[in-house]
Specification:
The chain is mainly alpha-helical. It contains 5 helices and 2 strands. It has a two-stranded antiparallel ribbon.
Length: 110
């Protein structure tokens, strides 16, 4: 699924929209953020890596603006997912404290 979102981000970079001022807009940031929000962080990371590689290929070198756009889209998508679905965040905190409590009990047995 991450490869599909990454492919759509790459295809979006191949066909940008040109504004009257000469600026180019492509939908890669929206696609990456939606991949994270609806499919999860791993899918979003795969899509972001594919979009970053596509940006490197199309720019024929390191494009700092394009790479920062990919990274910020991934970060904003992750942030929104954690805020919109707090049960995921609760699950990670719950698992952390369960593991911590388990290790404390194991150490007390020694």
């Amino acid at each position: 699924l991450g490869a599909v979102f990454g492919l759509f981000a790459w295809l979006g970079m191949l066909t940008p929209i040109q504004l009257a001022t000469g600026d180019l807009i492509d939908p890669r940031s929206v696609i990456i953020a939606l991949a994270v929000i609806f499919a999860g962080p791993w899918v979003g990371c795969i899509a972001a890596i594919m979009a970053a590689l596509g940006c490197l290929y199309l720019a024929e070198g390191i494009n700092w603006v394009g790479q920062s756009l990919v990274l910020s889209s991934l970060a904003l998508g992750l942030g929104y997912r954690l805020l919109a679905f707090p049960s995921i965040l609760f699950f990670f905190f719950f698992m952390f404290f369960q593991i911590k409590r388990h290790w404390q009990n194991q150490l007390l047995r020694l």
